[in-house]
Design brief:
Elements lengths: L1 E6 L3 H17 L4 E6 L3 H4 L5 H4 L7 H8 L5 E5 L11 E5 L8 E4 L14 E3 L3 H10 L4 E3 L5 H9 L5 E5 H6 L8 E3 L13 E6 L3 H7 L5 H16 L8 E10 L2 E10 L8 E8 L4 H16 L1
Parallel strand pairs: 1-2, 1-3, 6-7, 6-8
Antiparallel strand pairs: 3-10, 4-10, 5-8, 5-9, 11-12, 12-13
The structure holds the ligand NCc1[nH]cc(CCC(=O)O)c1CC(=O)O.
The ligand NCc1[nH]cc(CCC(=O)O)c1CC(=O)O binds next to β8 and α7.
Amino acid sequence: MKLTYATRRSALALAQCRAFVARLKLAHPDLELVEEQVVTTGDKIQDRPLSEVGGKGLFVKEIEEALLSNRADIAVHSIKDVPGVLPDGLLIACIPAREDARDVLVCPRFGSLEGLPKGAKVGTSSLRRMVNLHAARPDLSILPMRGNVDTRLRKLEEGEFDAIVLARAGLVRLGLENRATAILPPEISLPAVGQGALGIECRADDAKTRALLAALHDEPTSRCVAAERGVLIALEGDCKTPIAAYGERVVSGDSVSLHLRAFVSDPDGKNVRRAEETVPWPASDEAAQDFGLRIGRSLRA
Ligand SMILES: NCc1[nH]cc(CCC(=O)O)c1CC(=O)O
């Protein structure tokens, strides 16, 4: 059987989709895998913060069009880039085991957040990261910075910034995790919905492909991400709303539970509302999403 996978052309997109399809090939050695590269709106607009461009799913729209028109059969996304509600006819059929969900600081000169001098320039265009940084270090100067991971590392090296904040998962997948100089724990930088996890999207009516993908699905990751995406859906988040949500599986003795932390704030980063709750491990992704929806609604109220 032949399977075509759609991917963006950034170094991270290529690295993570090729690593995923290599695992898929190990699980199903007879599969013939074909790569279809797609340029998305998010890739084309590199000069403005996405929060200004507006709209949802700027890194996935053209890829979803390739799936719906049968030019591709699967898409490997960073699930953090995928809006809460998918187009009719598509679904996330597989969520593989999560990579590290945490943010990191890349700061060759000063190392850690505490080590940064007053007024140091930190580059990020993520509203969520701005809220996190501002809460921990209101004295820092946070400046917009866009571009792929490689572009951002280059801008840091060129001296425009003293530090940048990135997802550890992206660096790991690029083999660049040694660039991180400090890990920012969730207490300092609550991760984005789905950060560190992939989501493999396909046509809902493509039963063959769904069955192939099932081999690489990770239920614990899927439950946590479903809860986080519940928060996203309840808040109808677009790129203009700072939202964070992080679910974790917690085992204590015989009991397994899901611990969810989330925040939302106004677009300007003011009025941050936080929520945190632990429930018994949900029996299904739907139950996990309902939990996230409830937390999200409590934040909206
Ligand atoms: N915003 C772009 C993006 N989308 C996914 C990742 C990293 C990988 C992941 O979170 O799974 C990144 C880069 C970053 O935030 O540093």
